[in-house]
Amino acid sequence: MHRLKITSLLLICMIVISHSLLSACTIAAISGDVTVNGKPILWKNRDVGARSQTIALFKDGEYDYITVIYTGQSTKAWAGINEKGFAIINSDSYNLGLWPRSGPDDGVMMKMALQSCATVDEFQVLLDSTNVTGRATAANYGVFDSTGMVSMFEAAPYCYERFDASDAPNGYLVRANFSISGDPDNQPGLNRYMRARGLIRDGMYGNELDHKYIIQKVSRDMGQLEFDPYPLPYEGCYEGLPYGYLSTSTTINRYYSSSVEVIVGNLPHQDPKLGTLWAMLGEPITAIPIPLWVYADSIPPEINNFTSSPLWNEAGEIEEIVYTGTCYRCVNTFTLAEIMDYFSLVEDWVFACADVMLEAWDRSVPRKEIFSNIQDIFAERVYEYYIAYTPLSTWNDKPPLPDKMSLNAYPNPFNAKCQISVEIPVSTSIVITIYDLLGEEVHRIENDYVESGLHLFEWVPEEEATGFYFIKTSSPIDNSLTKVLYIK
Fold it and tell me: What is the CATH number of domain 406-486?
């Protein structure tokens, strides 16, 4: 009997440890008092073993809501916002005691909250009601509502502790996979917790703390407590890894981060319809954010598919490119820097357009069809960028040189800058000339000597009008010509 008890305890511990390896999210709840635009923010990096993710709209409760789910799943929610402007995220907590494995788990709790809660206080009532029956998993829940209230609940199976962001020293609350009210000697994800706190603090003091900062600087971070590899590519060898490689085993952006949710609330005077879920399907370093609204009453097909999400699949293809070589769970930062530079154009476009529209919608909220159409445009454009992406180079496995000069320009069309790649077989001089449709020269790049291999050049239009342009490369060995579309 004694041996049986020991064996049972070991099995329970193994289950909990195994689950912690597969479910290890990083989250933050940020008061509008410390953000650039005064709006509260919830952030979640979702690190799970079951990778395929999608975003779904549900109408199965008192309130409509949008949430991230496992592909094909409809019984649980893992981060979302409802029509009343109530939003919720979570991370599992592994220092609040053993889980009873009875009662609603965290996914069911969040679905119940989105279905029925309009305020943070109503979510607390929901926790009170489940304190009696118990909850199957211990979790940290970040929540906000349309009044601007932002809180973090550390919920053990039969009790909880509430922390309000307004009472926090810097106006924000960060959690990894432990709770402040739990066992201080057991803090899984401490590196992610400390790193996220530092990055959010820097954003606050630098007056940069908004959804863009969280997405670009925090969710994609691959640094350590005493190590900052930025800007990429990282030109060094970290802890014995190959030159330019970084491990993502313990970083905020992890090798099994499957999605990012950044939820931005409304200002107190604004309509809750403007509450925005910025969804990124896939690992953060390979995913592009799409803004979504409950009021749109729809989800773009590129994101919502109960069989497989097209955007999640495309991000997975990019992930396979950056995790190249023999280094297990390591990112080739030279390849990643090239990819992120390519996708920065469409990402900046999405951010800029969304900012303009949200500002206009604050004055007058349009019909829901407008919200739906805008979502579709963003998702379609991002998907097109994924499909059009072709790696320019492979840093650790250089391809053989071509027999003649090759010319490529991307993105095409473009609206800010155009990257021009030229690959030449032998060292030579080269001239790159850009012409309008009338044959007038608008820009020129000259190099008296260029070594063989791949070279990147950049064209940033200044006073040129929207339209087609020709890019011509000239050298003693070969000439090439391509056409691009510039859209202001």
Answer: 2.60.40.1930
